[in-house]
C-alpha cells in the first residue's frame, strides 16, 4: 500500500500540491484526473522521486521512502512511464528492455513484451530509441519498459498525450488488460473517458488538492453537476 | 610478439589481426609480420617508411589488417601507407595504433594514410586508436587520412579513439568526384587532461557527390576537444555534418563548422549540439533501477557505440 501524508509542493509562490493525503490500495487501478495545472503530474513525479516534496511523507508498505532516490524507489517496485518519452542516441529498444527487465532476455522475449503494447515487435527491437520513431511508437515503448518490470506500483503519466486516436484505441486495450490482470497497483493520469471507464477508483484533483475520490458515476456526477457560479452568470443575463 | 603485444593488437583490430586475407603488423617503427594474397598485395616502401597496398580490380569481400603498436617510450614513428583500390573492388580495411607507454618519455605515432579509390570501388575503413601504460610519458597519435574518390566509388570510414590517448590531432581530407559517397563516423572519448583536435576538409567536386560526417564525442574531467569541419560544395552535391558532444566535469568542447556552397545546387547541412547528459535520460534509466553512475555509463556507451 502507498500512502501520501500531508504532501505540499510550492514553486514560484504557487501551491502546486496543497496538503495532499492519499492512500492507494494494492492491486487496484486508479486514475487521476482533473484540469490542467491541478497538480496531477507533480503528484506522480513526487511518488517516483523525480520531484521532492517541500513537506509531508511518502510511505510504501510501511516504509518511509520520502528521502529515497529514483533508483531506490524503482528497486522497491515503483515504475514510471513518462508523459514525454525520453529518447537516446545509440540505445536500442532491445537494450532498454534488457535494462528494464534486469535480465539478458532473448530478442524473442523482447518481442513478446512489445507485442503486449501492440507493436509489431521484430521491426522494432533493433531500432534506436530516438526521434526517428513516431510519438505513438515511443509512447508504447515507454509503456513497455514499465510493464516489463512488473512493478508493484506502475505510474503512467498521461499515456494519451501526443498520440493519435488510432494508437490511443489500442492503448486503451493495453490498460484494460493491466486492470483485469490485477497484478499490481496502477496509477494512470488521464483525461480520457475510455481510461476513466476502466478505473476501480477515480481521483479528482483541482488546484493542488484532491477534490474527490470515488467510482466513475460519482465523479462524473460531480464534474457534470451545474456549478453555482454558472447560475449566477445566468441570472446576470 | 609477447602476450601484451597480442592483446594490444587485438584491441586495435577487434580480433586476431592475422585472420585477414592480407595483413601487415608494424611494431616500434618496423614491419614484423606480413601476409599478402593474390588480390591484395602489400609492398613496403624504402626505409620502413610505410607500405603500398594494392587491391586488384573486381576483388570482392577482401579483408586487410594493418595495425601498428608502439611499446617503446620516447619513440616517434611516422608512417606513410597508401591504399590503391582497383575498379569495382570491395574491401574492408582495419587500421589503427595502440601505444603502450610505461616510461617517462612521450611515445608518438603519426600515420598518414592515403586512399585512392578507382571507379566503382567500395571501401569500409575502420580505424581504432588506444593508449595504455602507467608511465607519465604521453601517448600521442596524429593520424592523417587523405581520400581521393573517382566516379561512383563509395567509402565508409569509422574511427574510434576511446581511451588513453593524451594528445591527438586528427586530419581528414577528401576530394570527391561525381556520384561518389563518403560516410565518416568518428567517436572520441577524452578524460583527465587529454586533448583531441579533429579536422575534416571535404571537397565535393563532382555532380551528385555526397558526404555524411558524424562526430560523437565525450569530454570528461579536464579534457578538451575541438571539432573543425570545412565542407565545400562546388557543384550539385549533398553534405550533412553532425557534431554531437557530451561534456562532463570540466570537459570542454569547441565546434567550428564551416560549410561553403559554391553552386546553386549544392545542399549542405551542419548540425552541432554540445551539452551535458540530459537530466530526463538519467531519470528514465534511474526509474528502471539504475544508479546515477550506471545510467551515465549506459548513456555514454550507447552514444559512442
Short description:
The complex is a heterodimer of chains A (237) and B (305). By secondary structure, chain A is an alpha/beta fold. In chain A, 37% of the residues lie in helices and 25% in strands.
Could you state the order of secondary-structure elements of chain B as H and E? Answer: HEEEEEEEEEEEEEEEEEEEEHH
Give the strand content of chain B.
over 45%
Shape of chain A: globular
What's the count of strands of chain A? 10
* Mean pLDDT, all residues of chain B: 94
What is the count of helical runs of chain B? 3
Explained architecture:
The complex is a heterodimer of chains A (237) and B (305). Chain A has 237 residues and is an alpha/beta fold. Chain A has helices spanning 40-48, 70-75, 93-101, 107-116, 135-147, 165-181, 193-198, 216-224, 228-236; strands at 2-11, 14-24, 29-33, 55-60, 63-64, 78-81, 153-157, 185-189, 201-206, 209-214. Chain A has one domain (2-236): Rossmann fold, CATH 3.40.50. Chain A is built from 9 helices and 10 strands. In chain A, the strands form 2 sheets. Chain A has a 6-stranded mixed beta sheet, sandwiched between helices. In chain A, a hairpin with a 2-residue loop joins strand 4 and strand 5 (63-64). Chain A is globular and about 50 Å long. In chain B, the strands form 2 sheets. A 10-stranded mixed beta sheet of chain B has the order 2-1-5-7-9-12-14-16-18-20. In chain B, strands 3, 4, 6, 8, 10, 11, 13, 15, 17 and 19 form a 10-stranded mixed beta sheet that branches. In chain B, helix 2 (279-286) packs across helix 3. Chain A binds chain B through residues 48, 50, 69-71, 74-75, 79-80, 82, 84, 86, 88-91, 95-96, 99-100, 102, 145, 149, and chain B through 216, 244, 278, 280-281, 283-292, 295, 298-299, 301-305.
